[in-house]
Amino acid sequence: MQNRITSLFNIDYPIVQAGMIWASGWRLAAAVSNSGGLGIIGAGSMYPEVLREHIQKCKKATDKPFGVNVPLLYPQIDKLMHVIVEEGIKIVFTSAGNPNTWTPFFKGNGIITVHVVSSVKFAIKAQAAGVDAIVAEGFEAGGHNGRDETTTLVLIPAVKEKITVPVIAAGGISSGKSMLAAMVLGADGVQIGSRFVASEEASSHLNFKQRVIAAGEGDTQLTLKELTPVRLLKNKFYNDVQQAYANCASPGDLKKLLGRARAKKGMFEGDMEEGELEIGQVSALIHKIQPAEQIIDEIMKEFLLTQKSTALFTY
Questions:
Q1: Which of 31-40, 179-188, 245-254 has the lowest mean pLDDT?
Q2: Which pLDDT band holds residue 16 (cuts at 50, 70, 90)?
Q3: Helix, strand, coil proportions of the chain in percent (round to 5)?
Q4: Contact 27, 311 (CB under 8 A)
Q5: Can you give the residue ranges of every domain in the chain?
Q6: Per-residue pLDDT averaged across 159-165, rounded?
Q7: Which residues does residue 199 pair with via DSSP β-bridges, in sequence order?
Q8: What is residue 266's DSSP assignment?
Q9: How far apart are CA 230 and CA 145, in angstroms?
């Protein structure tokens, strides 16, 4: 399958695995790349030397293209960026920050640069900064999210109207049918996170994977907008956050409640009560833990079958 995204990244399928903290280490990135998609190492949970180790291991595990995702709010950002350049990474996804800050640095080093946005306004700014593609991430997505609560169904065509670089849809996509729907709306490819959290190769804790596949509709909620909006599975920590809101907590109070390493405690260490459990709404449609290769195979088979069957409809 060839289009603007597969050509840009030199991959077989227009499927990008999201760079999720505590879930997307080298094993997952290599498995996705080896299966025809674009694997991404999530640097947001890594010290610079840990990122270097993951990059080097990924190089040994695949000869296919892979990339690195860097949240721009990372405290040691300059050190991460130099590791990326020193290790010869050719694809970088940035998020949670101003693309003007680092895009010229990447472009000057011959790196394909993609920025994640949650609104048309920031899509336009990212294109003006010189990125090669944009991930437009709807309200349904897990992890850090937009404050405007624009759904993928609305965001993709709205962004597509205003920009000319390729658009990668994210948020609520976990199947071939949802992939096809996003591309009918104008996306050139899709970024999938939550379904890969429940992969065998994801570095997230088994407790978290099992909690994800047990989730039902309504079991996640976007919260903590005063800090950085994040979609969480409901657990004791989530309930503590809601109680804090009921007590009129200030942003400082919320930050104190969040503390340090709360996401690591939940997603990586497996504490399902006190941990921060970031996941998308589509977790309600994920029912089993699978190898990444099997996930991509199922998505592409369903995509092609649905594409073929819908072409038969006449009006």
A1: 245-254
A2: very high
A3: 45, 15, 40
A4: no
A5: 4-204+283-308, 216-282
A6: 96
A7: 290
A8: I
A9: 6
- Give the type of residue at 58: C
The pLDDT value recorded for residue 2 is 87
Instruction: Provide the CATH number for the domain formed by 4-204+283-308 in this structure.
Output: 3.20.20.70
User: Do β-strands 189-192 and 15-17 pair in parallel, antiparallel, or remain unpaired?
Assistant: parallel
Confidence band of 45 (pLDDT split at 50, 70, 90): confident
Please report the pLDDT score of residue 44 as a whole number.
Answer: 87
Contacts of 226 (CB under 8 A, 6+ apart): 251, 254
Which residue has 């920590």 as its token pair?
A: 237
Q: In what order do the strands lie in the sheet with 220-223?
A: 143-144, 230-233, 220-223
Strand partners, 17: 192
Q: How far apart are CA 16 and CA 161, in angstroms?
A: 22
Q: How far is CA 22 from CA 129, 221, 245, in A?
A: 29, 20, 27
From the list 211, 195, 215, the residue with the least C-alpha distance to 271 is 211
Helix (H, G, I), strand (E, B) or coil at 233: strand
Q: Is 314 exposed, middle or buried (0-12, 13-18, 19+ CB in 10 A)?
A: exposed
Encoded amino acid at 36, one letter: G
pLDDT at 315: 45
- How confident is the model over 104-134, as pLDDT tens digits? 999 999 999 999 999 999 999 999 999 999 9
Q: Which helix (H) or strand (E) holds 15?
A: strand 15-17
Helix (H) or strand (E) holding 16: strand 15-17
Cα-Cα-Cα-Cα dihedral sign, residues 177, 180, 186, 192: positive
